[in-house]
UniProtKB/TrEMBL annotation:
<feature type="transmembrane region" description="Helical">
    <location>
        <begin position="21"/>
        <end position="40"/>
    </location>
</feature>
<keyword id="KW-1133">Transmembrane helix</keyword>
<keyword id="KW-0812">Transmembrane</keyword>
<protein>
    <submittedName>
        <fullName>Uncharacterized protein</fullName>
    </submittedName>
</protein>
<keyword id="KW-0472">Membrane</keyword>
<feature type="transmembrane region" description="Helical">
    <location>
        <begin position="46"/>
        <end position="67"/>
    </location>
</feature>
Amino acid sequence: MENNELKHNTESMKTANQPGIYKLMIFGVLVAILGTYLRFAFDSWVLSLVSWIILFIGAIIAIKGVFKILDA
């Protein structure tokens, strides 16, 4: 039989497991949660617009972290 073990010490695995990438993703999720909270906190069209912008910025930051993992 052939040895089909996964090699977890490859360069791409080391890059994908960097803590900075996961910190970026957590930061993006926290910003998105803040934007979601602000959407329901008050009833103002200005705050609603700002909260949507914050929500999308948080989502973009989190997706950027995911793409860094996929690029590895």
